[in-house]
Design a protein that fits this description.
The chain is α+β, with helices and mostly antiparallel strands and 229 residues long. It is built from eight helices and twelve strands. Strand 10 and strand 11 form a beta hairpin. Helix 1 packs across helix 3 and helix 2 crosses helix 3.
């Protein structure tokens, strides 16, 4: 199911719940449903067929109209929507923010740190992927992106704990799950000790982002950063 179809189905399911099909079986004609949603009767009929096919409703067609009851699967989808809306309205930060930056060649330190076993094991355990040994570096230039990046520091983060060896101390790394260019899952990383200022974000992913997304220096990239639960 595409995202477009899912949202269409959720809207229809919400209206069915409003009309009483949530806790009991409701008699609802396609004409009445169409008027409620603002679509044609033919389209409303198709939506009901799709909802039944996906297991979100049960229906019995009668002469007077459809007898419709939202199933447990449909109820779970509405509960997910409810939880997401609660998160948006009841938390002090939005569920995601999007930053845009320009690709540039960094200092090359990302690979050195990511290859450290103590860090790498935590990335695999806490982020769910084995990071490619290197970061994608983006330079933020817009006022909005710079301000928003500063605000990110107040967000809850996944913490990669630091450690010591005989030579030096390696500091804490904060991680924020992210989606790069709307295609690749990864994480924005922020080291407690960094050579970069607030205008730079570093991104790790299970693949080489430059190759996967065909990126060269100077290319602009959008990154959606997700709030941690």
């Amino acid at each position: 199911m595409t995202e477009k179809h899912k949202w269409r189905h959720l809207c229809t399911l919400f209206k069915l719940a409003e009309m009483g099909a949530y806790k009991r079986t409701a008699k609802i004609s396609t004409e009445y449903l169409a008027d409620k949603i603002g679509i044609s009767q033919q389209t409303a009929s198709r939506y009901l067929i799709e909802l039944e096919r996906d297991g979100w409703i049960r229906r019995i067609i009668t002469v007077e109209g459809c007898l419709i009851k939202i199933t447990d699967s449909g109820t779970k989808e509405l509960q997910k929507l409810y939880s997401n809306l609660r998160f948006i309205f009841e938390t002090p930060y939005p569920p995601s923010i999007t930053l845009e930056g320009t690709v540039f060649t960094g200092l090359g330190e990302g690979a050195y740190y990511l290859l450290k076993d103590h860090y790498r094991k935590q990335f695999i355990e806490k982020l769910g992927f084995d990071p490619f040994p290197g970061t994608l570096n983006l330079k933020l230039t817009g006022d909005y992106d710079l301000r928003t990046h500063i605000e990110l520091d107040a967000y809850p983060a996944i913490e990669i704990q630091g450690f010591k060896n005989k030579d030096r101390t390696f500091g804490l790394v904060k991680c924020f799950p992210a989606t790069v260019a709307n295609r690749v899952r990864g994480a924005v990383v922020s080291a407690l000790r960094s050579h970069y200022d607030i205008s730079v974000i570093e991104i790790v992913a299970p693949v080489c982002l430059r190759k996967r997304l065909n990126l060269e220096d100077g290319k602009k990239v959008k990154v959606e950063i997700l709030a941690c639960p």
